[in-house]
Specification:
Elements: H1 2-25, H2 27-44, E1 48-51, E2 54-57, H3 60-76, H4 79-105, H5 115-122, H6 126-153, H7 160-183, H8 189-209, H9 211-219
Antiparallel strand pairs: 1-2
Helix pairs in contact: 1-2, 1-3, 2-3, 2-4, 3-4, 3-6, 3-7, 3-8, 4-5, 4-6, 6-7, 7-8
Length: about 220
């Protein structure tokens, strides 16, 4: 059970860090977090762990925090700022990918000890990279859109949970479908289904856990 408890603590730390950066820096802090989280998530996702009896990737927590950040922006500042944040995350991810591909082309010195590790982390697998980029844009834009739709239909404060959970859980389902559909295209159907279900299961839990932090962010008097 050590992984499960560590994972839960890790999730709480991630969500607490969002509230901290938001409290200290306001709206710009959320923009910075979204750019950072998209990059870190794509590094952490390379590590697999045993969690709740299934094999899962580690990056799902911090990737899920990007959805919380855009929900906070959408709730408190509007749809336009949320969309801007989505594009910022996309540009950050593209920039990191390009820069690291160039960095890997440099011939390392004889004394270098990290080239192999960098290649393991950043060597581009086109199908996976395309799946990651497509899933991010499709799911994040959908999250902004459906959050706004729910907010317009149910504007009362008592529907905070519906805006947050409804938009994020559906968007994460779409994210998993797009990513797995592209990145793992050609795999045997039984293996593909197992990866898809396990991926979404973890993302669903993350979406559920972020709800109290969404409420706390809403109550913060931050410009």
């Amino acid at each position: 059970m050590i992984n499960e408890w560590l994972w839960l603590g890790f999730a709480i730390i991630n969500f607490a860090m969002i509230l901290t950066i938001y409290k200290l820096f306001g709206k710009p802090g959320l923009f910075v977090w979204i750019g950072m989280s998209t990059v870190v998530a794509n590094i952490q996702v390379l590590k697999t762990i045993e969690l709740f009896g299934i094999t899962a990737t580690l990056g799902n927590i911090i990737y899920g925090t990007a959805f919380l950040a855009t929900d906070i922006l959408n709730e408190k500042y509007g749809k336009s700022d949320a969309k801007k944040a989505v594009w910022l995350g996309f540009f950050t991810l593209i920039t990191m990918t390009i820069m690291m591909q160039i960095a890997l082309q440099f011939v390392p010195a004889e004394s270098d000890t990290v080239q192999g590790a960098l290649q393991t982390l950043f060597d581009l697998v086109p199908q996976v990279a395309l799946g990651s980029l497509a899933a991010y844009m499709v799911s994040q834009y959908f999250d902004v859109w459906i959050f706004s739709k729910i907010k317009n239909k149910f504007p009362a404060d008592k529907y905070f949970w519906l805006r947050n959970n409804g938009s994020t859980m559906v968007s994460q389902l779409l994210d998993s479908l797009v990513f797995c559909g592209i990145a793992f295209y050609g795999m045997p159907w039984s293996v593909w289904i197992e990866i898809f279900i396990s991926t979404y299961f973890i993302k669903f839990i993350v979406s559920f856990l972020d709800t109290p932090f969404f409420y706390l962010a809403k109550k913060m008097n931050v410009k």
